[in-house]
Structure formats: C-alpha cells, structure tokens
Design goal:
heterodimer; A: alpha/beta; Rossmann fold; 2 domains; four-stranded parallel sheet; 14 helices; B: alpha/beta; Fumarate Reductase Iron-sulfur Protein, Chain B, domain 2; 3 domains; six-stranded parallel sheet; four-stranded mixed sheet; elongated; binds iron/sulfur cluster
Amino acid sequence: MRIALAATCIADTLFPAAPQAVVRLLERLGHEVVFPAGQTCCGQMHVNTGYVAEAVPVIRNHVRTFAPVADGEWDAVVIPSGSCTGSVRHQQAMVARRVGLDELAATAEAVAARTFELSELLVDVLGVTDVGAWFPHRVTYHPTCHSLRMVHVGDRPLRLLREVEGLDLVELPAAETCCGFGGTFAFKNADVSGAMLADKTANVRATAADVLTAGDMSCLMHIGGGLSRQRSGVRALHLAEILASTREDPTPLPAATFSEMTTA
Amino acid sequence: MSTFLGIPRRREADDEPFGPLPHPHEPLRWGESFPRAAKAALGNTQLRRNLAHATTTIRDKRARVVAEVPDWEALRDAGSAVKQQVLAELPELLARLEQSVTERGGVVHWARDADEANRIVAQIAEAKGADEVVKIKSMATQEIGLNEALAARGIAAIETDLAELIVQLADDMPSHFLVPAIHRNRTEIRDIFLARMAGAPADLSDAPRELATAAREHLRRKFLSAKVAVSGANFGVADTGTVAVVESEGNGRMCLTLPETLVTVMGIEKLVPTFTDLEVFLQLLPRSSTGERMNPYTSLWTGVTPGDGPQEFHLILLDNGRTKVLEDEVGRAALHCIRCSACLNVCPVYERVGGHAYGSVYPGPIGAILTPQLTGPSGAQSAGHDDPNASLPFASTLCGACYEVCPVKIDIPSILVDLRARAVDADRGRLVDPVAAAMKAASWAMSDAGRFAGAERAAALTHRVGGKDHVVRRLPYPGSLWTGSRDLPVPASRSFRRWWADRKESE
Ligand code: SF4
C-alpha cells in the first residue's frame, strides 16, 4: 500500500523518533510511506482552546495537503496519534461548516474517511497484529483518552503489544483515567493537572515497567515529563517505537526519558 | 440551628469546622474562578480522601449494573431522542402539561426566574399559615436559593434527605447532585449532628446506622407536623400531568403523602411527552446515578386525589435561563440532563477538587456547560474575564469520560469546546492577551509548511538548552505552569521533516 504519513506537529518538532519508527515499521511490512511536505498540524490545539477563526487556515492546510488520498493517490493516511485522528474525524468538518466553508468540510470528510490511527491502520486496514517485533523489556500501556473515547481504538494497541516477542506487558492500574494533560488545561489549570499527573505517574511506577508506551506523543510528553521530573527511570516511548523494534534493528532504550533522533 | 439570611455573611469562629461556605447570593455564581478555587480544594487532604473514596465506589457500582443491560446503548439513544423531541416541541408540551395538571385538580404557576418562583412558594406557604415546610432534595430549589428566600420571609425549610440535611445543618453548600455531602466523611457528619441537630444523642458514634437513626428521629417529628411540602421533579408527563420523584430514602414519599399541601418546582426541561417515556428514564436513571438496578422509591402523582395524599397541589414551572439555553443550537443539549450525576462521578477533575470549586449548585462536567449558559454568555453580557463562570468551560481536559457515561448522551466535550470558542470570541479586542497573540502566531506558522519548517529550524536551535537529558527543568512564567510539576522536552536537533528530506536526498 501507499500510505501517507501525517507526522503531527508535536512529534515532527519534538519527538521525531516516533514518526520515524512509523516509517521503519510500515516499510518493514512492505508498504510505501509518503510524507506530504505541505503538512503542519491538524488544528486541534486551536479548536480545543476556542480559537476557531485561527484554526480554519490550519485545518485548510491539513485538508489540502491530504486531499489526494480522496482521489486515490494514496491508499490511506496514517496518524500516530489518537487525538489528532479524532480531530481529523470529529472536528475539522464541523469547524469548516461552522464558518460556512461547506466545500472544505466535504473534502475534510473525504480525507477523514481514509485516515487511520496507527493501531487501526495495522489491525483493521493491513490486517496484522503480529508485526514481527522484538522488544525484550517490561512495558506498560496508557490508553490515551482520545484514542479510547473519540477514536475507539479499543484493545488494538494491546493486541499488537501482546504479539511482540520478548515483551513483558504489565497492566497499568486505573489505566483509563486521564493523565491531566488536556492541552492548554495543563497551563490554565496547572494545579489540577499536576494532581492528575501525580496519580498517573504513581500508577506507572507501581508497575515497575522499564517503558511506558501510548499511541500519542502529546500525552507521553506530559506523563514522561512527570516521570523525568521524578527521576523515575521509566522511559516514555511511542507504540510505534516498540513495534518498529526487531532483533536486527532494535529500538534502543533511551538514556533519559525520551528517544533521541537516531540516524537510520 | 442555623438560620439562612440569604446573604454572604461572616460566621462565628465557633462555627468551624463546619460551613466553610457562606451562603452565596447567587446559587449559580459564587466563589473564585475555577483554577483558584480548585487550587484551594486540592490542598484539603480530607476532602481529597473523601472524594476519591466516594466517587470510586459509585463509579464502580455504576459500571457493574450498566454492564448487565444488553440494550444499554439503545436505551441511551432512546433517552436522548425523547429529550430532543421535548426540546423541539417544548411550548406545545408545556401547554399540554398545564392542561393535564389543571384538569386533575392541580394549580400550575409559571416562573420566569428565581425570584418569581421563590415568591410563589412563599405565598402558598403563607396562605397556609405555615412557618415550616419540609423539603425533598431538589436541584431546582437549590438553583433558585429557595431555602434562603423562605427564611427571609420567616419560613423555615427543612431538608429531609439525609445528605441534604447534613449540608443544611452544617450551613454548607451541596457539592454533588445525588450525594450533596460527598465531601464529608462519617466522622465529620457525627460532629455536625452533635453540634447542630436538636435531640442528637450525646453518645452518637460515627456508625452509619446510628447516624441514620438519629436523623430519622429528628425528621419524623418534622414530617408529622409539617403542613406544606416542597419538592422538585425528576419528570413531568405532558399527556397525563403526572409528576415523578425518584429517591432512595423514603423521605420523599413522606413529604409527598403526609402534608396537606404540596408544591413542586420543576425546570421546564424536565418534561417527557407520554407516560410510556418514563420506561426509558426509569431504567437509565437509577443505574447511572446510584448504580442500582432500581431505586427504592419512585413516587408518581397526578393532580389531586380526593381523600388520598395532599389535597392541594401546585406545580411551578421554572424557566430561570432555560429558554435562553434552548436558543443555542449546540448548547441546548445541556437541557437533556436528568441530573443522574454519573458525569461527576467519572470526572477526573471533579474527583480531585469536588463540587464547590465550580462555584455553582451545578458542579462537575454538566455544571461546566450548564452554569455558564444559565447565567449568560461568558465574556459578552456578564463580567467577562472577571466572571468566575467564564473559567468553567476550561475546567476540563476533554477526556470524554462524561460523554461516555451520560445516559442521555450529552456530548459534553463538544459543548465545552463550543463554549470556549464563544468565550474567546467575546473577548476579542477587549484586551491585549498573550495567549491570543500566541494562538494567532501559531495559526500563521501552522497554516503553511514553509513557515512551519522555519519555525522548527528556529526551535531546533534551542535543543542545546536541554543538556544531556534533552529536557528543561525550570522556565519563567507562564512556562513555569508546566515546569512546576514536569520537565519539558526540548525540540529535536533535527525535525522529522528534515530527517525525511535528508533521507530522500541521500537515496
Ligand atoms: S449530564 Fe448526563 S451524566 Fe451528567 S448528570 Fe446530566 S444526565 Fe447525568
């Protein structure tokens, strides 16, 4: 398949190892990955903060960049993020309609129909749960709120992780409770956010996992930021980084909390 | 015993530790903005323990009994559809309700706002010569500050729901729909009873059974002497004029049957079109709210039945901002709410800060969308940034747990986002706002890949400040809001975009 990658603005800038791992993984599975150069961001941050007018040009840019998928130029768009996928599916067309851009809304819907979160792409579209990965570490998985409740990825990420050779999967207590990030919530309600984060990191640490993983770098930035502050020794890796890891080309455990860019 | 004067007042030092809240002037707008009030609440360790314990217990119970119902999702759809119909046909349905109630011997009153509703209740009580009324726990009467209004006219309102009684005795404010004293534990309740409840046995322990018995004895005297009862309504059936109250303790049944006169204050959105619609809600409500398959007491009455129960029945239909909410295409879904409190119990924010931080008798996720709509659009008509209610739509991470459990499928996160947009739009041009400026700049950079790549290149230059761990540990304000409890990863030295371009080049 020809798959267009929407890297997400956060991962593109701060955590390139995550989309890079998506490329490694999909290419290993025999697919062609394209990175449409016009991409920036899906517009979620602006929408969720209430800056709708400012979100419109960002959304327009995303929709234009990925519109070729609706014409069959690519088979699918993959986003290694539940919340960005959720925004593409549930917000972009709505916002466009709200400001009277019906044509943009229609295109947004056509693009959204071919857009998948990573675990959805693997399990539903490509039909694999065993991606041939090897990752000999103790791992716990945080199901991010939007992947769970907006995109409904269900247990797909766990099914993928269970097939990873050598991986010791430990259940995260109170896994489905929000980590307290919520974008600008972390700033506007820093105290509540901090209290929620404290509970989340306590649960992560209680698992004695080497690695915390999730399908969203933004939530991992938040929980990982807390784990780093606490010098917990727990790493925060994107699901793709684990699935991309093989005996021949293992994903190294980072020295600190997050992966640095590798040069594959 | 406490008296309610209806105005904020300082309390005597020996009132402590009860009643941390003077009764506010406006039941829908009090205290500080959410972030400040939440910060104070977070520091109250006893409150945190009480809340965490109570919400976790109810949440788990709800999840268990909901899981048993194979057609739960269909029931939610049905509940949502009925409520949509009610809002679409509200004027006709209300007229029909008025007619049915009147035909069955009841008297219908219309109240535009809290003052009108309070005046009507007081006049009815005064006409009966009552200086005491017994009350069934009701959110509508909380919303209008009925107890305080009656007190100002020399009428004492006695709350008969156990938890509401605790709140009343402590001169406190409720913090939850269903368990208004959720912020109290049993030791605190024992202390409140001992200090404030006439006739409480001196050797009262904090065993729930003993506490309930003491309250029961106290209340029984009131039930037997009261001439007038005041209730809210869970549902009002337009076709038949039947009003329904759902409860657990039986105090409601006492109020609804013993006094001669019954006054019900009902929000106009509590309607259902037909009697059979109750079938849907009587399944949805108990499971969502107390986590029970069925609630112990469901009282239904239709007008007046000669020789049985109250011989005079007044139904007060309350607007108090609801028709204004109805005008809003997105926000009106908040009027679907059946006050089950499931969204409060699952909300990670509510669980940590409790109800008082929301500064309204409607706390939690539903409060965050209902309160600001009932009190006026944040920003424009109200006090703008200074209105504490303007902070409510931002009091959520948008995690979606509320939407997932809501028995009538109110998409609370989407309404929150919509209210945020309105708050932002109302504030445009009012003042120089650094957040707005940042959002504008980000929009400019993020709507063009060339500009975005430029911004990334600039950001990458800051990579060095992250040192060996690639994180920043301390930033000046407002970055300090983040670094107060977390490290911040620095931008990568090479963005993914650059890596991709370099890779293509080397191919
Ligand atoms: S919004 Fe929904 S979940 Fe919350 S109290 Fe109302 S009906 Fe219950």
